[in-house]
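in:
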């Protein structure tokens, strides 16, 4: 592999393939750091809208950053990967790696993108894998490129939806995995404007850091949800337990919020993929399988709570749900714990009325059979139980006297330990949280 070792000057020419959460955030932030960025997508309408500064996702600060980049001509959008890479020194692959039937990550989009750009790349360009890919995928990309003059580098992202721009510009670390040290140094130069530890390692380790990090975060959440179950059984308060645990600096209390289970576009897909990666490599990752099982069980436990709160059955009863997205501050419904729980309640005969501050479209096929309303008070009208399943801050401040009047019975299952338990009990509500009642 060849790669000049000089650090990339600010103002490098960069192409970003794919404009989903990761691609759009990466492109807009790199333009903000002073690079010239061309982003490519296969969907023409999306590219046209993006060039008008219209972004298709709810993501804090991203729309302003995209418009800033368009105004300064640092950022532009084109249709087709081949049209983005001409003259580019660096090419980011930010295409989807969906979960395959066997749990493994599907690499076909990555291979297609690599094959498409290969003939158009200038010599000495560096291809950077930012998609979440199984260990060994840097080799897969090299093969798909078939260019010995092009270095491939792994550069996993750790963005959280809802705070993606902040996370990109204020990373806990930048990880670069490369066999070609010269290429690694050039890629490192792209992040010069960021104050973050820079870790340069080999591709396999970089790819594993990504999966291990997500799997460990999911493990923390499954652990605290399991502890919450113990608290319910022994009469302890999980919020106090987490506080007590967290004083131990080796534990800390980040990512230990009990809830309805974890979901989203990353944790479910990545945890299953890591189990498969380990299995294919001859290791039975029993711990992680347990983490996934606890999460599935948590969906069941919350549905059971609602059923118990409704007097033992939800059959033909109205259940109100506040929160459909997998977490607050995003409009993303992918693998949402809320939808998992609602599915179980509907299987038990419940009629679900739901509200979410992100105003999801009632015609979204994932919301079929759910009566999605645009007002939180309309959602609780005639309901036997209100289940709070996404931790939207605004829900805390709603008028619970008005809620109580609209409901058929004042009963709340707080799947996020979000609202003021004492205040509700004082207003005559029956209240049950996660790991606290
Ligand atoms: C995650 C990782 O955090 C991020 O670093 C990675 O790049 C992509 O995957 P994201 O999918 O946006 O980000 O969600 P995250 O904020 O991590 O939440 C994941 C799930 O865990 C959500 O369903 C959330 O509600 C739940 N969660 C999170 C808890 O139940 N308790 C917590 O304490 C934290």
């Amino acid at each position: 592999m060849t790669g000049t070792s000089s650090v990339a000057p600010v103002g490098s020419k960069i192409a970003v393939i794919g404009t989903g959460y990761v691609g759009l955030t990466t492109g807009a932030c790199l333009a903000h750091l002073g690079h010239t960025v061309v982003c490519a997508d296969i969907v023409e309408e999306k590219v046209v809208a993006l060039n008008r500064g219209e972004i298709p996702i709810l993501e804090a600060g991203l729309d302003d950053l995209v418009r800033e980049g368009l105004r300064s001509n640092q950022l532009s959008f084109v249709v087709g990967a081949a049209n983005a890479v001409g003259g580019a020194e660096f090419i980011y692959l930010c295409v989807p790696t969906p979960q395959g039937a066997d749990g493994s990550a599907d690499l076909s989009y990555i291979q297609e993108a690599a094959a498409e750009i290969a003939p158009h790349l200038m010599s000495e360009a560096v291809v950077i894998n930012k998609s979440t890919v199984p260990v060994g995928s840097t080799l897969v990309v090299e093969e798909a490129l078939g260019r010995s003059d092009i270095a491939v580098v792994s550069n996993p992202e750790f963005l959280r939806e809802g705070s993606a721009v902040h996370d990109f510009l204020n990373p806990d670390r930048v990880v670069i995995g490369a066999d070609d040290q010269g290429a690694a140094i050039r890629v490192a130069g792209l992040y010069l404007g960021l104050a973050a530890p820079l870790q340069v390692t080999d591709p396999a380790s970089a790819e594993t850091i990504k999966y291990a990090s997500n799997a460990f975060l999911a493990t923390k959440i499954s652990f605290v949800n399991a502890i919450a179950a113990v608290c319910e059984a022994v009469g302890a308060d999980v919020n106090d337990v987490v506080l007590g645990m967290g004083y131990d600096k080796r534990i800390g209390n980040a990512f230990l919020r009990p809830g309805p289970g974890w979901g989203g576009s990353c944790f479910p897909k990545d945890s299953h993929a890591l189990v498969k990666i380990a299995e294919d490599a001859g290791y039975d990752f029993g711990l992680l399988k347990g983490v996934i099982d606890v999460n599935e069980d948590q969906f069941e436990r919350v549905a059971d709570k609602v059923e118990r709160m409704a007097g033992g059955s939800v059959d033909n009863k109205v259940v109100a749900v506040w929160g459909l997205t997998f977490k607050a501050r995003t409009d993303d419904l992918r693998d949402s714990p809320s939808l998992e729980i609602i599915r179980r309640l509907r299987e038990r005969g419940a009629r679900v009325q739901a509200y979410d501050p992100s105003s999801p479209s009632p015609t979204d096929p994932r919301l079929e059979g759910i009566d999605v309303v645009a007002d939180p008070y309309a959602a609780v009208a005639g309901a036997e139980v209100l289940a709070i399943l996404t931790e939207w801050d605004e829900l805390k401040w709603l008028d619970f006297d008005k809620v109580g009047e609209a409901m058929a019975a004042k009963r709340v299952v707080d799947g996020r330990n979000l609202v003021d338990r004492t205040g509700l009990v004082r207003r005559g509500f029956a209240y049950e949280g996660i790991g606290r009642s």
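note: The first helix runs from residue 21 to 32.
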